[in-house]
TrEMBL record:
Superkingdom of this protein's organism: Eukaryota
InterPro entries the UniProt entry points to: FAD/NAD-bd_sf, FAD/NAD-binding_dom, FAD/NAD-linked_Rdtase_dimer_sf, GSHR/TRXR-like
UniProt protein name: FAD/NAD(P)-binding domain-containing protein
Quaternary context: Homodimer.
Cofactor (UniProt): FAD
GO cellular component: cytosol; mitochondrion
Amino acid sequence: VITSDEALALPKKPETIVVLGGGYIAVEFAGYFHGYGSEVHIVYRADSPLRGFDEDVREHIQDLLKAKGIHVHSGESPLSIEEAADGKLKLKTDKGTEIVADNVMFATGRKPNSAELGLENVGVKMDPKSGKILVDDYSRTNVESIFAIGDVTDRIALTPVALMEGMAMARTMFTDSSQKPDYENVPSAVFSQPQIGSCGLTEAQAAKKY
């Protein structure tokens, strides 16, 4: 059982691999392994992958995954993973699907590495379930002298967003004017095949707002 960290350092190509998750990393690595000739199964709970994108985009990329020969198991969740005598892994889902594979890759999200920072000793509030640090609009925690930005917070976990938050925080801390990060039109990209990019509101968000 691996994550995206180990996936790039495998000693050999898996003949069959199961990718768990329907987000950026899962879709990208499903295409990555398929491109190397592996038999790929992708399993996710939603009806289509890439939550947060327009529905037609999500449905289109799902259709393309299937057209490439990737086995798409939408609306399913893993129940168990067992190792056989030959070292292969058998994954069972809540819909009764059984898949035998060389590797199972978890791409179901990450938790911030905040547990060993001693934040609880100084009273910084964190989400008890996810470990994410809670901040206000200016990246301040509930402790006046401590700020937090990037994936460790309860906001958008993208590299350019973290950079924007850092610049806004620096202006708040070191200039005479405070600045909030602007999440109105955040660009994002998925390096799938083909690639997907978006900026601004989805159709559903625009309909709700306007």
